[in-house]
Design a protein that fits this description.
Number of domains: 3
Number of strands: 11
Oligomer: single chain
Radius of gyration: 23 Å
Order of helices and strands: HHHEEHEHHEHEEEHEHEHEEH
Helix content: 40-55%
Length: about 300
């Protein structure tokens, strides 16, 4: 698989137009088509599909896109390291829970971009089940989880700190009038859970299962912001990191219920594949992460 063909593929994938890709690359359109055909023959699958006048990536094309981006970014970084030009351009792919993405990533990127303004990022929400494969294959460089431990020998983890979890409701919810709230009080209530804020969601589900709590319904959402708005409207209760709801709590739009169990908290872990080569660029980003967490979270 030639690097030139991968670069042509990336250009077509970005523009979704063979003619425009040929003009940008200063190739004949037939040359662009031939390079894509070579890749398709090597892989045994079509990479693009014509839908009317439009061109779209197939599933195989979507898969190759992630690897092609990584390969070309590594080429640029290798050229800079070997030639001594110290190229700062590259690409970093992350898997990150919404809580970390909304509360910590802006500060992390602010510090990182000060020294590395030309780096591309691919940031996706947390998918716990696929992490080992994505980290090992190189699709994902670095991942973050809200969990106390991760028992996978092929992955390395670093503890960054802990965040507190709170049970929230609207200020006029009946449970706000109780001195303390137990897990049994969740019965007959609608529980809102984040779909992709990782393992503390599984912890809540396990509690409900262990205690045989029958809720009115469980609503899973992709967006923590959407969950907060539903809770403000009085549609149910939720458990989430306190930092994600701090603004609404301070404004009086959300209330923290007095949980009678032990205080709930979860660790924040930074995770990467044990055998992965940590490039200078990735190391610099990891250092930016450590700096922000050391300044914003009190470690035990």
């Amino acid at each position: 698989m030639e690097l030139r063909n991968l670069k042509t593929f990336l250009t077509v994938a970005r523009l979704l137009n063979f003619r425009k890709a040929a003009e940008m690359l200063n190739y004949a359109q037939s040359s662009v088509s031939a390079q894509i055909k070579i890749l398709e023959e090597e892989l045994g699958k079509p990479l693009f599909q014509r839908v009317g006048r439009a061109v779209v990536l197939t599933d195989a094309g979507q898969e190759l896109l992630q690897y092609a981006q990584k390969i070309t970014a590594m080429e640029q970084e290798a050229m800079g390291a070997v030639t001594g030009t110290k190229s700062r351009h590259g690409r970093i792919s992350l898997r990150i829970p919404q809580t970390i993405g909304s509360c910590f990533l802006p500060d992390i990127l602010t510090g990182f971009y000060h020294d590395h303004p030309d780096v591309d990022f691919d940031v996706a929400s947390c998918e716990y089940q696929n992490l080992p494969y994505e980290l090992k294959s190189g699709i994902t460089d670095l991942a973050f989880l809200l969990t106390d431990s991760l028992d996978l020998s092929e992955l390395k983890t670093e503890f960054l700190g802990t965040v507190n979890l709170v049970m929230i409701s609207s200020p006029d919810h009946p449970l706000t009038r109780k001195k303390t709230v137990s897990i049994m009080d969740l019965s007959s209530n609608t529980i809102f859970l984040p779909k992709h804020d990782c393992s503390y969601r599984m912890m809540i589900e396990q509690w409900l299962m262990d205690k045989k709590i029958k809720t009115s319904s469980i609503v899973e959402m992709n967006s923590i912001e959407a969950i907060k708005q539903c809770i403000i409207k009085g549609l149910g209760i939720a458990i989430m990191p306190d930092i994600t709801a701090a603004k609404e709590i301070d404004q009086g739009n959300l209330a923290v219920l007095n949980w009678d169990e032990m205080s709930i908290e979860t660790a924040v872990l930074m995770i990467w594949y044990r055998g992965k080569w940590i490039s200078p660029l990735l190391k610099s980003f990891m250092d930016s992460v450590r700096k922000v967490f050391s300044e914003t979270i009190n470690k035990p």
